[in-house]
From TrEMBL:
Protein's UniProt keywords contain Metal-binding: yes
EC number in record: 7.2.2.21
Alphabetic keyword roster: ATP-binding, Cadmium, Cell membrane, Ion transport, Membrane, Metal-binding, Nucleotide-binding, Translocase, Transmembrane, Transmembrane helix, Transport
Entry GO MF terms: ATP binding; ATP hydrolysis activity; metal ion binding; P-type cadmium transporter activity
Origin organism lineage: Bacteria, Bacillati, Bacillota, Bacilli, Lactobacillales
Pfam families reported for this sequence: E1-E2_ATPase, Hydrolase
Reactions this protein catalyses: Cd(2+)(in) + ATP + H2O = Cd(2+)(out) + ADP + phosphate + H(+)
Protein known as: Cd(2+)-exporting ATPase
Species of the source: Secundilactobacillus mixtipabuli
Subcellular location: Cell membrane
GO cellular component, one term: plasma membrane
């Protein structure tokens, strides 16, 4: 048992040693003209490379499985008997090298469960009835306890706010980019971060029952349920290996020619077959890596090629995830003056929309920092008022305008309706008693995404769906702008999972594209999970495909590349099987012998390798800037 573990642990070193010995053997023959060096180098290479193969063959036989490893093992023994050490060495090396290539593509392990649990709150501050506070382990919190949450802290439970107010970042749960105002009576989720203020929360769900706890559970369940697809070669081996053994036995029975029977085994060894699929996958994966696309293995490539339904999160995926001014309706003679006044006013506020407005003013090169503020006041639920450079400024919603008797013209009312229908947050600005600006603040749709979604359709996608935690109006607006087939909004993570399960039950092959922690259960549940590289580590770890630059161009390339790679793999398998059939038939009919058979056998290996190499140049090469960004992101991921 210890020996088996040692061999398995050092299989890559064994493969390298075999390659060195094979090279030494050829050098001995062609440079030193030494048959002794040639023979012994290949004998040693055969022995050390055959050991791990024979161990796998033995383990398969113990569970009553006749594997390709068994065929290779018998062929090696037979090659030794008839003195074909070079063939046995090359076959065993190629077999181990093919296994090494396949394992390399699966080397990035997933640690999403660990990442999630590390992000979960570990302690909570309980507020007792006498007003004292006690920090306890999260497992000691019971339903009904009152929990104190201060600025910058993570909410440790699901519950309701019983006192206090503040802005919560709930992107960990809903994926929504904008901070949400919370006050008495509002619900809060475990894992969300309090940006400002102080809240007292009554716990309604604790521990594994919280929404954040359910996210962890869903990821775990989905990963447990997801088993690697059995490769065609493994299925083929169930019939191929016994068939070759039977043919070799029949040859010996009818001819009593042991060398010919062994030759059947030697030529029947699937050298091109065992390397054909891995080398195609590696070439395809390498192509993607140069373009900032991480594809986690050949099985992923095969499943991705079958995808017909793409499901997208909205925030950070279809949109950039950056709140910005998206609409400006101006009614002032000097629009820059009005923008400067509102930007200066927003400097006085901690409202999340304020930064978007000040950033917009800065981008428009409007100077506002030097403006003098005489007084200011925040009106709860409406906005703020301020006196800036002797101008009376109102910044807020329609309630504030109505409360201050700011009348809207028909044009302004129509503009307000238009901005509201985009799902944007509306900020209205009145100066000295007259409405001067209506600003829409929203997440920005990715540039060029509509064309990229159409490209997905051109490559075979049949259904494009949005599942988001954002509000229905915003989600519907985005879907209409970019041309999605289906949209479902205001969803929690477990509801996204239910939709994906429903699509799968309908017979669809589903890929989910997202970037947030809240997306990880959906990413894990879909046949193919795709994470934007700018997203969280857990989404990246859980996924099957990572788009390191968060680029939809990369998504389209990955989708088309997977289809091209699968076709290339099938071509290699067909070439390998065709060559083996040709060799066996030729051997039986008498026009193929050991020498010519070995030549064709080795040539077929080169053919499948060269065929796979065509994948390396598939598609457009990335620019130097893209390569630099990829290298930077790759270093972060690794």
């Amino acid at each position: 048992m210890k020996f088996q573990r040692y061999i398995q642990k050092h299989q890559n070193q064994i493969t390298l040693a075999s390659a060195i010995l094979i090279a030494l053997g050829f050098a001995g023959k062609y440079l030193l003209n030494s048959t002794v060096v040639y023979d012994w180098a290949f004998i040693l290479a055969s022995i050390i490379a055959a050991v791990p193969i024979m161990i796998h063959a033995y383990q398969s036989l113990r569970v009553k499985v006749i594997s390709i490893e068994l065929l290779v093992s018998i062929a090696v023994v037979g090659a030794f008997i008839i003195g074909e050490y070079n063939e046995s060495a090359i076959v065993t090396f190629l077999f181990l090298f093919g296994s090494y290539l396949e394992q390399r593509t699966l080397s990035k392990t997933r640690e999403s469960i660990k990442s999630l649990t590390q992000m979960a709150p570990e302690t909570a501050v309980i507020l007792h009835e006498d007003g004292t506070q006690e920090e306890v382990d999260i497992d000691d919190v019971d339903e009904g306890d009152h929990i104190m949450v201060k600025t910058g802290a993570s909410v440790p439970v699901d519950g309701k706010v019983v006192s206090g107010s503040g802005y919560l970042d709930e992107s960990v749960i809903t994926g929504e980019s904008k901070a949400v105002a919370k006050t008495t009576g509002d619900s809060v989720f475990s894992g969300s971060i309090l940006g400002n203020g102080t809240l007292t929360v009554e716990a309604t769900k604790v521990g594994e029952d919280t929404t954040f706890g359910k996210i962890i559970e869903l990821v775990e369940d989905a990963q447990d349920a997801k088993s690697p697809a059995e490769s065609f070669i493994d299925k083929f081996a169930q019939y191929y290996t016994p068939a070759v053994l039977i043919i070799a036995t029949l040859v010996y029975i009818f001819t009593r020619d042991f060398p010919t029977a062994i030759t059947v085994l030697v030529l029947g060894c699937p050298g091109a077959l065992v390397i054909g699929a891995p080398v195609s996958n590696v070439a395809g994966i390498g192509n993607g890596a140069k373009r900032g696309i991480l594809l986690k293995g050949g099985a992923v490539m095969d499943d991705f090629a079958k995808v017909d339904t793409f499901v997208f999160d909205k925030t950070g995926t279809l949109t950039l995830g950056n709140t910005a001014v998206s609409a400006v309706k101006n009614y002032a003679d000097d629009s820059n003056e009005a923008l400067a006044l509102v930007a200066r006013a927003e400097r006085l506020s901690d409202h999340p929309l304020g930064k978007a407005i000040t950033d917009y003013a800065t981008h428009e090169k409007v100077s506002f920092e030097q403006l003098d503020v005489a007084d200011n006041d925040t009106v709860k639920g409406q906005g703020l008022t301020a006196t800036i450079d002797d101008h009376h400024v109102l910044v807020g919603n329609l309630k504030m305008m109505n409360a201050n008797n700011i009348a809207l013209t028909d044009t302004q009312k129509a503009d307000l309706t238009d901005v509201q229908h985009t799902g944007s947050s509306v900020v209205m600005v009145a100066v000295d008693g007259a409405l001067k600006l209506i600003l829409g603040v929203s997440d920005t749709i990715r540039p060029g995404i509509k064309a990229q979604l159409q490209a997905l359709r051109d490559h075979g996608a049949k259904h494009l769906v949005m599942l988001t935690g954002d509000n229905k109006i915003t989600a519907q607006y985005v879907a209409e702008q970019i041309g999605l087939d289906e949209v479902h909004a205001e969803l929690l993570p477990e509801e996204k999972v239910e939709y994906i399960k429903k699509f799968k039950d309908q017979g669809r092959t589903v890929a989910f594209v997202g970037d947030g922690i809240n997306d990880s259960p959906a990413i894990a549940t879909a046949q193919i999970g795709i994470a934007m590289g700018s997203g969280t580590d857990v989404a990246i770890e859980t996924s099957d495909v990572v788009l390191m630059q968060s680029s939809f161009e990369a998504l389209v390339h990955a989708y088309s590349l997977s289809k091209k790679t699968v076709i290339n793999t099938k071509e290699n398998i067909a070439i390998a099987i065709g060559v083996v059939i040709f060799l066996l038939i030729g051997l039986i009919l008498g026009f193929i012998y050991m020498a010519s058979g070995m030549f064709v056998h080795e040539a077929s290996i080169l053919v499948v390798i060269f065929n796979a190499m065509r994948l390396i140049s598939y598609g457009k090469m990335p620019t130097q800037a893209q390569q630099a960004a990829t290298q930077k992101t790759s270093a972060h991921l690794i």
